[in-house]
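Repro:
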Amino acid sequence: MKVKVIRKWFTEESTIGEMFVDDVFLCYTLEDKDRNLKQTDTLMWIKSNKIFGKTAIPYGTYSGLFTMSNRFKRVLPEIKDVKGWAGVRIHSGNTAEDTLGCILLGKSKAYDKIFESRLAMSEFFLKVAPSKQFTLEITKI
Protein backbone atom coordinates (compact mmCIF):
# COMPACT_ATOMS: atom_id res chain seq x y z
CA MET A 1 0.00 0.00 0.00
CA LYS A 2 1.37 3.44 -0.95
CA VAL A 3 0.84 6.41 1.37
CA LYS A 4 2.03 9.85 0.30
CA VAL A 5 2.25 13.08 2.30
CA ILE A 6 2.64 16.28 0.32
CA ARG A 7 3.68 19.13 2.60
CA LYS A 8 2.01 22.36 1.46
CA TRP A 9 1.61 24.95 4.23
CA PHE A 10 4.59 26.02 6.33
CA THR A 11 4.74 28.19 9.45
CA GLU A 12 7.24 28.75 12.24
CA GLU A 13 5.31 26.24 14.39
CA SER A 14 4.03 23.54 12.06
CA THR A 15 3.77 21.98 8.63
CA ILE A 16 0.41 21.03 7.14
CA GLY A 17 0.09 18.71 4.20
CA GLU A 18 -2.25 16.38 2.39
CA MET A 19 -2.20 12.59 2.69
CA PHE A 20 -3.04 10.30 -0.20
CA VAL A 21 -3.54 6.54 -0.03
CA ASP A 22 -2.93 4.87 -3.37
CA ASP A 23 -3.20 8.32 -5.01
CA VAL A 24 -6.61 9.12 -3.46
CA PHE A 25 -6.87 12.05 -1.02
CA LEU A 26 -7.59 10.82 2.52
CA CYS A 27 -6.96 13.71 4.93
CA TYR A 28 -4.72 16.53 6.08
CA THR A 29 -1.51 16.04 8.04
CA LEU A 30 0.14 18.16 10.69
CA GLU A 31 3.80 17.88 11.61
CA ASP A 32 6.40 19.95 13.41
CA LYS A 33 8.24 22.70 11.54
CA ASP A 34 9.84 21.65 8.25
CA ARG A 35 13.58 22.32 8.44
CA ASN A 36 14.14 20.96 4.91
CA LEU A 37 15.94 17.81 6.06
CA LYS A 38 16.22 14.93 3.62
CA GLN A 39 16.53 11.19 4.14
CA THR A 40 19.75 11.35 2.08
CA ASP A 41 21.38 13.87 4.48
CA THR A 42 24.09 12.55 6.78
CA LEU A 43 23.12 11.66 10.32
CA MET A 44 25.52 14.36 11.55
CA TRP A 45 23.75 17.01 9.41
CA ILE A 46 20.32 15.88 10.58
CA LYS A 47 21.33 15.90 14.25
CA SER A 48 22.89 19.35 13.94
CA ASN A 49 19.71 20.82 12.37
CA LYS A 50 17.04 18.93 14.32
CA ILE A 51 15.37 20.53 17.31
CA PHE A 52 13.84 17.81 19.48
CA GLY A 53 10.05 17.91 19.42
CA LYS A 54 10.04 20.83 16.96
CA THR A 55 11.27 19.34 13.67
CA ALA A 56 9.39 17.37 11.00
CA ILE A 57 11.00 14.13 9.89
CA PRO A 58 13.17 14.29 6.75
CA TYR A 59 11.73 14.13 3.24
CA GLY A 60 12.05 10.65 1.80
CA THR A 61 10.47 7.22 1.44
CA TYR A 62 9.99 4.98 4.46
CA SER A 63 8.46 1.65 5.30
CA GLY A 64 5.64 1.55 7.80
CA LEU A 65 3.86 -1.11 9.77
CA PHE A 66 1.34 -1.43 12.55
CA THR A 67 2.97 -2.10 15.93
CA MET A 68 2.15 -1.70 19.60
CA SER A 69 2.95 1.79 20.88
CA ASN A 70 4.36 1.85 24.42
CA ARG A 71 3.35 5.50 24.77
CA PHE A 72 -0.25 5.15 23.53
CA LYS A 73 -0.78 1.55 24.73
CA ARG A 74 -2.38 0.48 21.45
CA VAL A 75 -1.46 -0.55 17.92
CA LEU A 76 -0.55 2.44 15.74
CA PRO A 77 1.24 2.91 12.41
CA GLU A 78 4.99 3.19 12.93
CA ILE A 79 7.36 4.78 10.42
CA LYS A 80 10.57 2.78 10.36
CA ASP A 81 14.21 3.79 9.95
CA VAL A 82 13.85 7.56 10.18
CA LYS A 83 17.43 8.80 10.43
CA GLY A 84 17.91 10.70 13.72
CA TRP A 85 14.44 9.77 15.09
CA ALA A 86 12.98 6.86 17.07
CA GLY A 87 9.39 5.79 17.63
CA VAL A 88 7.85 7.89 14.84
CA ARG A 89 4.12 7.23 14.60
CA ILE A 90 1.03 8.37 12.75
CA HIS A 91 -1.59 9.27 15.36
CA SER A 92 -4.33 11.69 16.32
CA GLY A 93 -3.78 15.20 17.65
CA ASN A 94 -4.52 18.79 16.73
CA THR A 95 -1.44 21.02 17.08
CA ALA A 96 2.35 20.89 16.79
CA GLU A 97 2.52 20.40 20.57
CA ASP A 98 0.91 16.97 20.00
CA THR A 99 3.43 15.73 17.42
CA LEU A 100 6.90 15.21 18.95
CA GLY A 101 8.11 14.40 15.43
CA CYS A 102 5.12 12.24 14.55
CA ILE A 103 2.52 12.80 11.82
CA LEU A 104 -0.99 13.79 12.92
CA LEU A 105 -4.08 13.27 10.77
CA GLY A 106 -7.19 15.46 10.47
CA LYS A 107 -10.22 15.90 8.23
CA SER A 108 -10.07 19.72 8.22
CA LYS A 109 -7.39 22.34 8.83
CA ALA A 110 -6.76 25.87 10.05
CA TYR A 111 -3.61 27.88 10.72
CA ASP A 112 -1.27 25.60 12.74
CA LYS A 113 -4.16 23.19 13.55
CA ILE A 114 -6.08 20.22 12.23
CA PHE A 115 -9.47 18.93 13.36
CA GLU A 116 -11.49 15.68 13.40
CA SER A 117 -8.30 13.77 14.00
CA ARG A 118 -9.88 10.59 15.39
CA LEU A 119 -12.15 10.34 12.34
CA ALA A 120 -9.13 10.68 10.04
CA MET A 121 -7.27 8.00 12.01
CA SER A 122 -10.26 5.65 11.73
CA GLU A 123 -10.33 6.14 7.98
CA PHE A 124 -6.57 5.57 7.76
CA PHE A 125 -6.93 2.30 9.69
CA LEU A 126 -9.82 1.14 7.48
CA LYS A 127 -7.85 1.74 4.29
CA VAL A 128 -4.30 0.84 5.30
CA ALA A 129 -4.33 -1.58 8.26
CA PRO A 130 -5.63 -4.61 6.32
CA SER A 131 -2.36 -4.62 4.35
CA LYS A 132 -0.39 -4.65 7.66
CA GLN A 133 2.43 -2.61 6.10
CA PHE A 134 2.82 0.37 3.81
CA THR A 135 5.29 2.62 2.05
CA LEU A 136 5.27 6.28 3.10
CA GLU A 137 6.65 8.95 0.78
CA ILE A 138 7.06 12.47 2.13
CA THR A 139 7.48 15.27 -0.40
CA LYS A 140 6.41 18.90 -0.89
CA ILE A 141 4.78 20.96 -3.62
